[in-house]
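Pilot study result, target chain (192 residues):
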Amino acid sequence: MKLNEIRDNDGAHAAKTRVGRGIGSGKGKTAGSGHKGQLARSGVALRGFEGGQMPLYRRLPKRGFNNHFKSRYAVINLQELQKAVDSGKLDSGKPITEDVLRAAGLLRKSFDGIRVLGQGDIKAKVTLEVSGASKSAVAAIEKAGGTIKVTVESKRDPDGPKKGKKTKAKKAAPAGDKGGDAPAPEASATDE
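Predicted structure:
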């Protein structure tokens, strides 16, 4: 077989119907569009139109929002790391970076980076360099004798605003106002 001999199977593609070519074409005078009106014209798209009643896409409530600036991380768990070390895909003696993890086939996409989570156990002494890690993952890796370096600092401010009661700042009283009755003005020498 040669490239110029490759053909589709018979019936794989139906021939496009040639409409609007007159009464003798077999499709009649109006070519399947009926008589006049909006639907007989070109450029009409009524997808989702329900005759004027509130359409479904507007009846359903909106919820939440999409943060287009949010960082997306690929996730890898400790048990997957241990499994890769045991199978020989990862060398625990060398630093494990995001490129090494991708080359080992543990991740297909890294998005904005890779985040290590603490599901499962790890016994291998590894040196990791990733974008993020959970507290449990860091503790487990350090307990096994390994080290982990997080390259992206957390955007959360540990000393930021806390949930709870909001305290209202008291308004400062104007100078000279002690809250009592205002003193009577002193009589001037001209008043008699």
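One observation from the pilot: DSSP finds four helices and six strands in the chain. A full batch analysis is planned for the follow-on phase.
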